[in-house]
Amino acid sequence: MRWLSSILIALVATASVSDAINTSDKDMECTDGLYIVVARATNELPGPGESGRIANRVADRIPGSKVVGLDYPAQFIQPFYIDSQRKGQEALKAVLEDYVDKCSKGKFAVIGYSQADQRNKQGAQVTEDIICGTSGGLFSKVEPISLKIAQSNLIAGILFGDPTHVKGSNFNFGTAPYSGIWNRKSSSVDRCESLSDRIRSYCDKGDAFCDKGSAVDEEVHRAYVKLYGDEVVDFIAQRWENVTGSSPRRESAESIKRWGGPNSSTYNGSTQISGDKTGGGGSENNSNKSNTNNGEGGNPDAEEGAAASLRLIAGLIHAGLPLFILCLFHILH
C-alpha cells in the first residue's frame, strides 16, 4: 500500500499551512446568556450556516445569548480537508479559550454540523476534537480545551453526522447501528463519555459517513435539523436551566417563523445563514437515544466484509477522489 500512502501524502502536502487563526467575533464581550459557537458545514458560506437555525432558536429562549459562526475554511479541496479541519480545530480552541479568559464564569455551547454539503461532516469532527481530544490517525494533533473548561463552562456540545462517530457510546443519539468512516482514539471517546451529560452525537442509519455499515441513503444527512431541531433546542435550554438556575423562556412565534423548524411552514433544508446574532423549557431525556448495539438483522459487526465495504465505497464516491483515497487508506490499514 506504499503507493496509496504516497498519493495521500502528496495530496496533504498541497494544502496551505500559512493561514493565521481567525474567528468571526472580533469584538468579543461577555454575554449574560449563552455564547453559542457554530462550526459550519463544508462549502457553506461564512457564518453559522444551516445549523445557525438551531443556534438562533436557542438564543431566542435564553436572553442575552450570542451566536457566532466559527471563521475557518470549511473547504474540501482548497485547502484540502485535512488542513481545513486543522484550521477549524485551532480556531475553535482559540475562540473558546479567549472567551473563558475574558469571561471566567461565562457559559458556552458548540454545534458542529454539516447538512448543506452531502460530502462530509467537517464541523462535527472539529467540535468533538476540541471538546474531547483529537480523532487521531492522519488528522492534526491539536490539543483540546482543558477538562476544567469543559466541565465548568461547556453547557452543550452537539454533533451531527460525525465521521468519527463510535457505536455504543453513551452520548450517541439517532438510529445508526455502526461507527463512522474514521476511527477516534479511545482516550478521546473516554473523555466524551465523562462529559456525556452535555454532549450529544446524532447519527442516523444510512448516513454514509457516520454509519459506514448501513446501505447508503443520500437524504439522511440532510434531515438532522428537521428531525432533531426541537429536541436539541429543548436539551440546550434545559441544560442552561440545570446549570445556572435561570429558567429559559418559551420560544417566540417570530423565532420559529424566522429560523424555521419542523413545526414551521418556512423550514427549508437548504437555506444558508451568515453573520452573527445577539439574542434577546423542555426536559432532558434519552427518548431518541440510539440503541447502537442492536441494528436490524442482528449484530452490526457481522457485516464488516466485502458487502459493507462496497456500500461504503459507493457512498464515498460522493466525497470526491481525495476524501475517497483518505478513507480507503484507513480501511486498508
Automatic annotation (TrEMBL):
Give me the segments passing through the membrane: 312-332
Q: What Gene3D superfamilies does its record include?
A: alpha/beta hydrolase
Give the residue ranges for region: Disordered.
244-302
Does the UniProt entry include the keyword Heme? no
What residue stretch is flagged as signal peptide? 1-20
Ranges of biased composition (kind: Basic and acidic residues): 248-257
Protein name listed in UniProt: Acetylxylan esterase
Provenance organism: Clonostachys solani
